[in-house]
Amino acid sequence: MHHDDDLHRLAAGLGHILVHALITLLAVALAFSLPVLAQGIDTLVDKSSLLRAVLQSTYEIRVMLLNPLGQSLPRRATSFPDHEVSPQSLASEIGASIVTLAALRNLGKKVTLKFYDAEPLWKLVFLGDHLWVQHAHTGMPVREQPEYVFRFLQHDPHRGFYVPFLSHFLDLWGRPGQPEFDFDTQELVYRDPAGAEERRLPFRPAAA
Questions:
Q1: What are the φ/ψ torsions at residue 163 (nearest 5 degrees)?
Q2: CATH number of domain containing 69
Q3: Residue 130: Cβ within 10 Å count
Q4: Average pLDDT of the chain to the nearest whole number
Q5: Beta partners for residue 18, in sequence order
Q6: Has residue 162 been placed in a domain?
Q7: Count of the separate structural domains present in the chain
Q8: Are 42 and 142 in contact (CB under 8 A)?
Q9: Mean per-residue pLDDT for 4-22?
Q10: What is the pTM of this model?
C-alpha cells in the first residue's frame, strides 16, 4: 500500500516537473519572438508606441488582429459613442498595421499574422518573461485603459497571470477557424485542425 502511495507521489512530482519544464521552455522561446494580440493602430503603427523599437530588434513576430472582414468589427465600431469611429476607419487602422508588418517582413523578420473574429477582450503583448495587458472595454478606446505588466515567475510558473494570459493567446492562435494572412498573395488562408490548408479567400478590406 505504501509502495502505491510512493508511486503516486512520484508520478505527481514528475508531472509537476514536466509542466514546469514545458512552461519554462515556452518562456525561453518567447524571448526570441513577440506574440501580440491587438485590434488597431496604437500597438504597431503609432510612432509614440514603445513597441516600435522592440519590433525592430525582434526576429519572430506573431500577431493576431481583429478581422476587418468579420462580423465583430462593425459591432466594435458602433459601440463607440464617438461617431468618427466607423467600420471603415477601424478597417483602415488594421490595414495600416498590416502594412507595418509587411515592411518588417521585408527586412527579413519572420512575421505571422492571424485574424480573430470576436469582440476584443484584451490587448496582450508578450516580450520574453514580461506581459503587457490592457482591457478592451466595449465602446472605449484601448489606449485610454490602464496598462498592467505581469512577469513570468520561473521558480513558480503557476503563480501570477502570465501563464493564464499566455494560454488564452495560444488557444486563440491554435484555433483552426482563425485565418492566416498570406503576405505574398494578399489572401486569407484557412486550415483544418491538422494544419492542412482548406481554402483561400481574397483579402479586400473596405477602404476608409
A1: -65, -45
A2: 3.30.870
A3: 13
A4: 76
A5: none
A6: yes
A7: 1
A8: yes
A9: 39
A10: 0.75
